[in-house]
Amino acid sequence: MDEIWGVLAAVLSSAIGGTSIGATRFLVGAIDPLAIGAFRFGIGVLLLLPLALLQRGSWPPRRDWLGTTGLGLLFFAAFPILFNASLISTTAARGALALSTLPLLTMLVGAALGAEPLTARKATGVLVTILGVSMALLSGLATAPPGAWRGDLLMVAAALCMALYSIWSKPFIRRSGPIPFTTLAMAAGAMVLIAASLLRGSFAPVAEFGAPQWFGATYLGAFGAALTFYLWAFALERTTPTRVAISVTVNPIAASLVGAVLLGEPLSWNLIAGIVTVFAGIWIATTQPQRVPVTAADTR
């Protein structure tokens, strides 16, 4: 049952992450991506910290502080910097497809490090979900700016950061729980992003913020950071890194559906086909084939 809850939490985490793309796209016209990350994770830490402090017995032990901080810098600092930098050179559709390599990278790295076995069923499910994302983003993949491959490589590097975080963080989460671990890791990344934003003067436009900008920043912090990455850690505590990572393919699907509902963007046939294919791939990768019981008569 824990496996099922873990997969469902991961899918919900990625779906919320997809809706956060809309808030990010709205805020990028007001402040630079570095400051957006600082707001997102800074607010996320402020919301998670009281919950983490209530779980005193589960706070990461001192021997885990260095590892937790390193994982926080990898996921909550390096990842958003690479992610935002990639979208300068490539399109959103190509970036989403490059990010969908996350489950493949997680599966291969996890097998290489001995974190989880590589199975044919899991590999098939991962490849099917990547195919589904490709189908859903078919129209956006046709065009690409000059040098888009640089942005694609940066997004793959961001996916690798996320894969390593998913694999290496599992034992830390088991020792301290998802909320305390996520709070400490996110705080490490947020401090780096806040310091870099202050040095660059990225917070200057905040003086011109109105209610919509503050709502967007608060949404990113509450849902795009605190809830999204708590659910991600909750999932990692209960199932394998690859089964968690495969849910990231829901992210561009959710973003497309939000665009259709809120922005009036048409629901094309390839988006519908992509949605069905992605969920078929997730089902293949996260379920086990039924075994036929062997009876005494079969052994005669």
TrEMBL record:
It comes from the Bacteria. Its main location: membrane. It is found in: Membrane. The keyword Oxidoreductase does not apply. Keywords: Membrane, Transmembrane, Transmembrane helix. One of its GO terms (cellular component) is membrane. It is a multi-pass membrane protein. This is Threonine/homoserine efflux transporter RhtA. The keyword Cytoplasm does not apply. The chain crosses the membrane at residues 33-53, 65-83, 95-113, 125-142, 148-167, 179-199, 211-232, 244-263, 269-286. InterPro entries: AA-Vitamin_Transporters (IPR050638), EamA_dom (IPR000620), EmrE-like (IPR037185). Pfam families: EamA (PF00892). Belongs to the EamA transporter family. Residues 5-136, 150-286 form the EamA domain.
